[in-house]
Amino acid sequence: MSDIVVRNHVKVIGEGQRTIIFGHGFGCDQSMWQYIVPSFKEKYRIILFDYVGSGHSDISAYRSDKYSSLHGYVQDVLDIIEALELKDIIFIGHSVSSMIGMLASIERPEDFDKLIMVGPSPRYLNEGDDYFGGFEKSDITELLDMMEMNFAGWASFMAPLAMNNPDPMLSQELERSFSSVDPVIAREFAKATFLSDHRNDLAKVTVPTLIMQCSDDSIVPIKVGEYLHEHLKNSTLRLMKAKGHYPHISHPEETITLINEYLQAV
């Protein structure tokens, strides 16, 4: 157990009987939930962690072959669940963590009570006239090339685009997070994220799901949220007033309200 706790820099806080696991997105770590966690720690037991290669995780545990797809990150989540003997989990995942949590729930459905997805996407690439994910293959190639050639430049370009908020401090906070990740690991995580396709896995999900879709998200278009709602059984779609891809940072009050409404209603 202690190996996993150290490897993924796991923190357990809160008093409640029910358990929430917060999964951070690409280029981030558990600190990105700092505006959300205080509202839940009195009623819930909170599990925070960093994926291997992110934040204060044990970077020596990173292996390119393991983390070349999202399944390596899914294993991180399953290892934490097993180490802490967690049951009836509410998994709140941001961005790519939505799919990571979903895949973990498919593998171990008996351990999950609910999934809450903040800015999720099962597929970032467009596919002809059949699917609109928001990106062409050339966009992703350009992004990965930029990360390889000028990582600091990529971070300063990407942060304000993804945050989409007039407060420059929020974009700077995100840029610092991006810049703190090892460039090689960040690029491999980006590749695993943006080239993934988990549309065929949606039909396998049995856990009730809340989809939180921002109204103007440069990473995940509204059509993606609608696609998820259409293909996920027992799902609820909430279109947020918040803009950008990081509502838990830019609009924590709305994020907290929608999560609470969902947890109290079902």
UniProtKB/TrEMBL annotation:
Signal peptide range in chain numbering: none
Family that this chain belongs to: Belongs to the AB hydrolase superfamily.
Taxonomy, superkingdom: Bacteria
Record-given protein name: Sigma factor SigB regulation protein RsbQ
PANTHER family recorded: ESTERASE-RELATED
InterPro entries in UniProt: AB_hydrolase_1 (IPR000073), AB_hydrolase_fold (IPR029058)
Gene: rsbQ
Residues covered by the AB hydrolase-1 domain: 19-252
